[in-house]
Amino acid sequence: MLILFTFLLLGLSVAVLLQDRLLNAVILLGVFSLLSSVVYFVVGAPDVAVTEGAIGVAFVTFIYVLALSDQGKLHVIAEEVPSFLFQEKGELRGVELEILRDFSEEIDLDLEIEFVDHQELTSLIGGRRADMIAGAYFPGHLPSDGLSDSRSYHQGQLTKIHLSSQEGEEEIGVLREFESEELTELTEEDFASFDSTYFNSLDEMIREYNEGRIDGFVADSGRMSTALYRINSPLREESEIVTIGKVEYGFAVSSGEEELLEQLNDYLLESARSGKIDDLLSDYFR
Amino acid sequence: MSDMASAITILIVCVGVLGLILKRNLLMKLLSLNIVNTATILFFVLVVYRPGDRAPIGPDIGVQFADPLPQALVLTSIVINFGVLALSLLFTMVLVKRYHTLDLRKIEKFVKEEYQEEGQS
Amino acid sequence: MGKYSVSVKTLYVVVIISIFGAAIIGALVTGSDPEISRIGRVYLERSLELPNISNAVFGVYGMYRFYDTLFELLIFSTAVLGITVFSDLEPSLSTGSSRRPVESHVVSASASFLYPIIAVFGIYLAFSAHLGPGGGFAGGVIGGTGILLLALAKGAEETGRKFREDSMKRVEYLVLFLAMLIAILGALYPTEIYNDLPGTGVITLVNISIATKVFIGTWAILHFFVKHRGEV
Lengths: 286, 121, 232
Description:
heterotrimer; A: alpha/beta; D-Maltodextrin-Binding Protein, domain 2; two-stranded antiparallel sheet; 11 helices; 47% helix; C: mainly alpha; 2 domains; 10 helices; globular
């Protein structure tokens, strides 16, 4: 009898350590304590049994659960991009928000989104603040070290805006992250024929374009649709948007979070199959 | 029979110590520590157990009683374990607040980076 | 580098398994002494001979080795002190978000009904430590469980108002002082304190000091964790 109990305790202790989810491990530890309190009672130590029952089963489990409730957060940092992930009248909205909210519910974490601008995002990569990066992210959008890309949930275009009247050689604004080979991977066009200038942010490129210092710039379709509204109206009339390549919108997960990446990929695959994502996309991109 | 049982509790302590070393998650480490605590208390109680022992309560001396000494010693240690566990959970929460992760390797990396930054400035 | 760290870890595992394996084999080969230990027998017989004591375990931790128990109480109060000090140093931990407790009539009604019962049970266990199983440790913790229920039903703030932090601290140090007094007097005048038990009330004082100390300690820990969360 006693040996059976101790073997059960051994099995439970191994089971606690093999759990993936912390909550399950904590509950199993409560069962472990309860069973050990039974053993104390059997071997003639009722004082120890009562104390272990009150502390080990009730209180330890309780304070673990209270401490756990804080750890279970999915920290996402994001760029604000309308339609994808944005704030409207103090409320978060966007297609990525719905995906993230659904995903965080599925893995039982609280969602916490923090908006930063593009430059800050670059400096935060691999840092401690975020588990995930969202906000119309596509592979190549940020320097790739410290990040792993998830599956894509939506296909967009890489577009170039330029003056339609312009002939011959153009001076095109490009984000600094595209400086290396990334741009040639994304585009079908040969960019060597352009005279490219590199910028740190989209805002800077729009300003330069408005002031006529560059003849055009490259951005993905999600960002281009909002950038268009910020170009001066006479200039907008003359501008023309050309599709030059494809981008695949997805999320970036901090490298080292392999488990999260796997869960996210499974979730995205599953909801793409069930048509959930298509419904969401048709709501936001008519 | 109680020899076998106390040998198994040593095995449980071994499992807990292995978890303490091999697990990278801080809370998992605390859980392993908890297992070690409970198993040590179990060992103390079981190692003096003889089959047929009764709880050392009652005026009758003629009955075969369990040894009260280890029981009284581990009784206080249960409460101490609880206090120490609460304190270490608090430190874990401080670390999580600062580094947003429970992974010990990541926390070590961040702390090292902080030291280097301090050294440079 | 990666290979090196892996091999160190394997070394650790091998060393630990061999140490514990040796311990297990030793325990199986030598076997435990079937006789009750000599010191344990002395404690058992002397405790049960004392008037008013029928729990030999209490005789050890409450009477003959109360000095040890005093240091246990000191360690526990040090841990609790660490928690209160750190919760003051890191105010971000106790954000004090004023989230309301779960609005449930079942919980609040059963809490106001059950809390006195739990409290009485805890007090009973604490005061009958020398007679039966239970004792001050379990009694104090069960009193803390009652507070947990109260916090669950009425929210952290109201519970904090009912059991004020400053008065709790005062009681805590008073009780610690009482325990020290008993331990020191017991060490100086063992026959007067421990042998002439009927009428001195030492047992009750010991029970009260242990139970109150443990109760306030668990309350402080619980209060910190509940405050940190903002709700239960």
